Description:
Mean pLDDT of chain A: 79
CATH class of the largest domain in chain A: Alpha Beta
CATH topology of the largest domain in chain B: D-Maltodextrin-Binding Protein, domain 2
Low-confidence stretches of chain A: 1-20, 110-129, 147-154, 232-240, 431-437
CATH superfamily of the largest domain in chain B: Periplasmic binding protein-like II
Number of helices of chain B: 18
Oligomer: heterodimer
Radius of gyration of chain B: 22 Å
Largest sheet of chain B: 5 strands, mixed
Number of strands of chain B: 10
Helix content of chain A: 55-70%
Low-confidence stretches of chain B: none
Number of strands of chain A: 9
CATH architecture of the largest domain in chain A: Alpha-Beta Complex
Largest interface: A-B, 45 and 40 residues
Strand content of chain A: 5-15%
Amino acid sequence: MxxxxxxxxxxxxxxxxxxxxxxxxxxxxxxxxxxxxxxxFGELIEQHRNKARGLAERLTGDPHMADDVVQxxxxxxxMHMGSLVDTSRFLPWFYRIVRNQANMRMRxxxxxxxxRPFVSISSPETNGSRVDWExxxxxxxxxxxxATDAAMxxxxxxxxxxxxxxxxxIHALLHCLSRKERDIFKAYFFRQLSPDxxxxxxxxxxGSIYTxxxxxxxxxxxxxxxxxxxxxxxxxxxxxxxxxxxxxxxxWQAEPPVMSTFISSIGxxxxxxxxxxEAAELMGVSTFAFxxxxxxxxxxxxxxxxxxxRATLQGLMxxxxxxxxVLCGQLADSPVPLLGAVERFPVVLRIEEAVLPFIRRxxxxxxxxxxxxxxxxxxxxxxxxxxxGYDDRVRVVHLTDPIRPEGKTLSYDDVINNPVRFLAxxxxxxxxxxxxxxxxxxxTGTREQALRTIRFAIAYAKHGCEYRPRTSxxxxxxxxxxxxxxxxxxxxxxxxxxxxxxxxxxxxxAEAKRYAALYLRGVPLEGExxxxxxxxxxxxxxxxxxxxxxxxxxxxxxTSEVLPPDMREVCVEQxxxxxxxxxxxxxxxxxxxxxxxxxxxxxx
Amino acid sequence: MKELRFMTEFQHLQRLTDAKESFERAxxxxxxxxxxxxxxxxxxxxxxxxxxxxxxxxxxxxxxxNKDMFVDxxxxxxxxxGLEEDLYQGPMRVARHNGxxxxxxxxxxxxxxxxxxxxxDRAGLAYPTEDWTWDDFIELGKKLTxxxxxxxxxxxxxxxxxxxxWYEPFVFRNGGSYLSPNxxxxxGYVDSPATIEAFRxxxxxxxxxxxxxxxxxxxxAGQLHEGFAMIFGFMWFTGDxxxxxxxxxxxxVGLPKMQGGDQSNMIYMGAAxxxxxxxxxxxxxxxxxxxxxxxxxxxxxxxxxxxxDRGLTGHRLWSRYMEELDHVRPSGYYLSEKWNxxxxxxxxxxxxxxxxxxxxxxxxxxxxxxx
Lengths: 604, 371
């Protein structure tokens, strides 16, 4: 009996822990959904849709109406997600919305009594084809199709009312278009002119008219989503709602700026809240000083960016005593860079309300925001940066750019249309750990931290990066093996080495190795272990020299050219030299760790 | 001197360089400049810039779903006597799924079942034939999976990775699909009985029959060409067997028949297209035609005449791949960018089905949110 009781207790505790896990997961999904993460909202709904539907069916007694009730409830839940203060109360809150929706429908008298579906109004002329009233394209198609027999339809009061409503809706949406886009759009959809006729009218090519119509439809579709979700834009200018704030972004001591912009941006963010860190310390603790990754395709530079962004950022910030909140996603209808890193980001909508509140909230609290910029100044293609201000009046954010020390602005549209959405801001722990409390673990834990970094450096050099993209055709080589891959690319008769990538890879990794040397000089080890760390530092310095020579041979400039064949062997020489030095450095680090382990063993 | 700028996302450029040289020889007033791009994002940036390339060659299809970005090549194809009839219609059907022809397909690849004849011989089993069924396939897989006393396999019946895209041919053949024909929705398709049934069969092959290696399962079977009796083998895999001169040990057969009776298969391909910003679209087309149609630039050619010239239609293995080209149809990733972008999120769910036994029909119903 005792065993049975224990088993039951254990089972109950298992159930409870599963329940807790699901509860925590829900809460995290709700928090993400509040920040506009539609993927999180989707997951949340998938988990609860069946139960909500069951509830709706019980309340309405009609399975078809129950579907509509749940659908309406979902839209309202997403619209008002931000108003849910206690994120742990999502489920009861959602059920209340379902109940309200069901009651509302029932008051109207059930399906189709007082609210005939639009499709049932359709006359026989439409051949029974359905109009999807949730889909703007379908509405526009319907408008275009029915314009010719409009006069006849005017005689039907219901149809007349419906058409009036539609036209009003469309006209309300049209404000999102520029004047020219609006004129062309109206000519095409309302006046039924052909693109050729419109082209003649505006003295433009037919192709560009198609482009205008396409662009306008895209804009209208987005606007329609915003309106459907109740995400109405704030009134512009003079309403008192428009806000702006510019933080004083203090300079970071690293000069010249660190080329690993993930680290330089974090350094600047920390500096701006008064936590000045040495560049070598951040490069070391983050382990970026010891990383090198290369595409298996050719010398493309994308390997620099292929790691688990969320986990790495959260891990680093935890290591130095901060919590961080992350907003991430990808747009589906726009080419996305760095698929190897972005592949598991959820697909998100191009809506302002999914991004701007996150930026405003952090900036208003005096905290800059880490941002992945895909409109960075050349020769860069995309880099991390820091958003340090926003201005609702002119709809721009202020942010850093590695090529523009004075900073730059991007429009809200640029931010919303960025195909990779990755923003991060300091979390709530910042206030609690500011000042001395935040610094305490740095002083007591520096040695353990240094040993963790050195162990990472050895494992990474010998076995490569643990993170591997799931996309089957994306493969990368990292650690010391990356040198061999690089040399293979240069020597292979079948592969064309990419010149632009060569320039960026050699510049970024030359600097990383320089920081590895600097970091090791400052680690708090003693005796033989420290002597070996110093030897490793010297070897890293020499590896950095060889990489710098490579960088001099193939400078980091924006070009689409293929690397000329006569450059290949010269580059290989430098890579072989760098590899020999780095191999030696890793050897010293291994010995240093062994000595340290021996010392600790003898103490025990 | 006219200049054509050719931007490519590929890294093996020898065939392209050869085509450039022969084209320049035949057209002394023309210079082709080859440029590289890392991915679709960079290619798109180049197109959006003031210095758009004349031709973009991409390893995927997403750029070509942008109708404004490329010139419709259909009229050019129609101008060349006999070209339309000579083209393999399967890849062309997929390339034209939006109506226009935004590019000529390159890097075409399709999967078949490649089987290790020695393993069949050792087990005393007859080689699979074209009329085999899913049940036959599973039974063979079970007989060809060899595990030791600890359950570790030294040989697996079937080798295939975990990827939503690679299970789609089985879904097609069972009468299902992931998305509606225009790609606008997954509702009513990915959660249809035929799709769920096909998916359950695939997951059972891992979990119930144990003929496929589960993710991270301990294995003594080595690489695909070493310890797997049947392999979901794309053209690239077979090309490697031939390159390493071990193709004698292998045979090739079509995918097994399923209850839907459909013969469809998937296809991977990129394309090379003339950009709508090109100032010399006709010349750019002429070069594309030279590079892709006239010269032997890609492993699987687009025309029957080139396949015959190269002896592929008579080749023991390649001939079966060429035949299969007629059976391909557009997969979900051609039809919906949202579905395409969600690939790895979906794959995470597949891992959960295989490793944790997550409910198949419930999981597939939840995928309706991905399109």
